[in-house]
Structure formats: C-alpha cells, structure tokens
Amino acid sequence: MLKYYFLLGLRSLRRNPALTALMILTLAVGVAASVSTLTILHVMSGDPIPHKSNRLFTPVLDNGTTKGYVPGAKPGDTQLSYTDAMNLLASKQGERRAALYGVEMAIEPARKDLGAMSSAGSAASSDFFAMLDTPFLYGQAWNADSDTKAEDVVVLGRSLSEKLFGNSNPVGQSLVMIGHQFKIVGVLDTWEPSPRFYRASDAFGVYDQFFIPFSTAIRHEITHDGGMSCSGGATKPGWQGRLESECTWLSFWIELKSPSQRQDLQAYLDNYAKEQYKLGRFQRQAKNQLFNVMEWLEEAKVVGNDNRLSAWLAFGFLLLCLVNTVGLLLAKFSVRASEVGVRRALGASRREIFTQFLIESSVIGLVGGVLGLLMAFGALALIAMQSKELTVVAHMDWEMLALTFVMSICAAILAGLFPTWRACQVTPAIQLKSQ
C-alpha cells in the first residue's frame, strides 16, 4: 500500500504543476541555504584528527611584562617565543614534540617551461610528521639528525610535486629554494586536515605546499609567514635579536602517550615557569595553560560567533520557507476535498487518507531535496570562488549529503502535517451533496 501511495504522490506532481513547482522551489531554496551554511560550519568545527585529538596538546605561556597587565587577563598571544620553543623541544616531555612556523619561499624549478614561483609551507621539527600521521606518497620524513645538522632537505606536498615533476618520483632530486639546493626526501600524499589546527592563526589558509626542517629555516634566517606579538618587551635589531627576544611567533605541539599524562605535563609547565621567573622572565606569574586540539580550536575562536549566527539565520530562512510551503500545501489539498469525500464514502479510513497525503508531501520533499542539493553544490561553488580560504571549507562531504535528503524530507513532512490533518477532516456527506 505504501508503494501505491508513493506512486500516487509521483502522479500528484503533475496536478497543478505551477503550484507544485512553487512548493518544490520554495523548499529547495530553504534547504540549499541552510545546508550550505551548515556545511561550512560543519567543516570549520569538525575534529581534524579524531583518533588522537585528545593526546595532542599545545602549551600557552605568558612571557609578557607587568606593564599595564591586569591579573587574570589572557595572554596577548597564544604562540611561543623561540627561547621557550627550544627549551620545550629539549625537555623530552611526551612521546613527540614539534615546533613550527609558516614560511614562504621562492622556488626555481628545473623545468624550463616553469618560471620562478613563490610557495607557502611550514618549517617544522622532524616529529611533526609522525605526530600528525601524515601520509607519504614517496620517500619519508627527514630524521632527527637532519634537524640537528640543519640540513637543506624538503618534503613536498603532492600538488607541488606534480606541478614541478609530473607523476614521477622526485625523491633524491634537488630543488632550488631561496637560492639554495634542497634535497627532496619525501612527497606527502593528499593531506588536508580541516581546520589546519597546527597553525590555528591561519586555520583555513592554503594548505602547505612543502615542509623544511625548523632548524634549517632558523639557520637561513627565513622570516615567518604569520602573526607575531612582542608584548614581552623591546627587541634587539636583526635576526639574532628576534631569537633572543620575548616575541611570540612559533606554534608548538606535544603528543602524549595517554590523555591521563596531561596533569604531569601541566606540572612540568608550572615548574618551568617558576624557573624562568627566577631567571627574570615570566614576571606576570600568570596561569600556564594546556589545550588539546578541540579545546585549542575553541580557544583560538576558529569558529566565531558570526559563523554560528549565520547558521541560525539560515535555519530561520528554512523555517520561513516551511511556513510558505504549509500555505501552498493547504491550497493544493483543499481542491481535492471532493476526492477525499468519495474515498471516505467508499470506506477509506482517516488514517489511510492521512498516510496517503503525508507520503505525497514526502515525495515533494524528496524532489525538493534533489533540487536543493544541486542548488547547495552551486552555492558552495560560488562561495569557494570568493577566496582561497573559503575553498578549504566550502565543500560537501557524505554526512552533509545524507543530511540534505533527510532535512528536505523531514521539512516536507513537517510542513505537510497540518494540511494533511485538515484534509482528513472532510465530511463525506457534505462533499457528496455538493457534487
């Protein structure tokens, strides 16, 4: 019987085609608007590394001066100074430790058809790759010895590798970067964590095209690509002055074997801050903080209140579309009062009438969902064209794909409840007399 009602629902689409098309379009526009906004919010607020996000921690240490400081206030920056990053690297805390910062470097391809180009990447210590479980297409990461010697080695991202070398394996070849020969030791497979939590200050920027050793970037005095705060006091001129300063510009992550070791790491940070205070640093004596991945994304406000407000407004628009759909369904079902009266007189129960009309509403929701899905893809494509940052988040995954269909059908059923109930209240005797 349900199959029969479903076929009736398909046939009903041809009744009052203009009214039916308006209902489908209204529902599709509401679903597309809400799903597009929800998709972006979903991508932005998702867990980028769910299997170990509760074991990866970033420390926040306040090395600012006491001038103008209000006790209890949050530090002006959540990055670390070079001094603190190097001390934590040498601390042997946790299973792995990684210091990193964003860099932009000039590349001179060996291919004659390609001119010099500028590419963005990260300078990171060797534990970075194992810590974040980066997949390799060719080769492997450099080792700790390369970190110690500050060797000129590089791991390419897949897109940059294919651009420079095609589909061939470039491991072992050299690449001229900032005027120096860098040996290619590995090529990452497609790896696009979203959001890019390890650099939360640029969480939705263009994905890194290459990685070089942190120590190598320091040796070549490669300036950082990102924000920097110097609230810790005046700095000396030059690169060495920056390294010796209290300016914060480095990201730092620690991987623990188990989340239960968090308290031990916190105790270490507290003792470290006390030692630095005795050395004349950390004069604010502020609370030292640890954040796992999801806590860090919340602290860094990767998903702002304006993003959540946009999602609520989109759902408000969907609600408005539902109200309009209710009115259209009332108009559509009201002209079928005589049909309902005849069916009731022939023995059909109110439950059967209710089921039939509700399934017809579901069919409208299904068609509206397909159209809404196409419109959502179009909307996301237009959003992605606005900037490189939006390209990272404006894409639909299978979860949102399924949600689109469920949302459209549920919306149609919700909109059809009242019109369907009204259709069931038809009195057969009155309708038969009017014929």
Automatic annotation (TrEMBL):
UniProt xrefs under InterPro entries: ABC3_permease_C, MacB_PCD, Macrolide_Exporter_MacB
Subcellular location field: Cell membrane
Residue stretches making up the ABC3 transporter permease C-terminal domain: 313-427
Organism: Undibacterium umbellatum
Name used for this protein in its record: ABC transporter permease
UniProt topology in membrane: Multi-pass membrane protein
Pfam families tied to this protein: FtsX, MacB_PCD
Highest taxon in the source lineage: Bacteria
Source lineage: Bacteria, Pseudomonadati, Pseudomonadota, Betaproteobacteria, Burkholderiales
Residues in MacB-like periplasmic core domain copies: 20-271
Major location (coarse): membrane
Membrane spanning residue stretches: 311-333, 354-380, 400-418
Keywords: Cell membrane, Membrane, Transmembrane, Transmembrane helix
